[in-house]
Fold this protein.
Amino acid sequence: MLHLVGGFNLFLPNFEFGIVTEEVTVAAARDKTEGYYPGTFAAEVNVPVGVEALAAKIKTVGQHPELYARTNLPPGERERLTVRGYLYSETEPNETEFVTVIEGRLNPNPEPWRMGSKSGVEWDVSSIFYMRHETGGVIIHEYDLLGGGHIIRNGAPVGRERRRILGMTI
């Protein structure tokens, strides 16, 4: 079934209103690989050794001083961003909520300002240590890099026993 994005807004802690958002590129875990030559085999095999740094992009409509105020944070601090929206289908009559929570650092890439135009800003979200994406109340992916990595992958818990053995509470 084809799910279409109906709309979404960006929410910040201690800010009552949703910020109109035009475009979001959600962080996705990509394999970090190293080349390996097994035995006497002449061909290289790429072996996954971890995950590349998570990054996301959010494009807002208009200028938002409340977002600019949350840039250039001291080292080690991150901002919690929540994108809330809905999906719909042309074959099903209902709408499905989706929520993405990202904890990272905002870096602005503003468009040129023009009088009377929306002149949006594309925000790079870097240094992501936590990200959760859920659709219809079901968590699809959850990463907590400080708490042991991938917590949920494709809706299923990952590494719970490993974290328990290492004394992690998650």
Remarks:
- The longest helix spans residues 160-165.
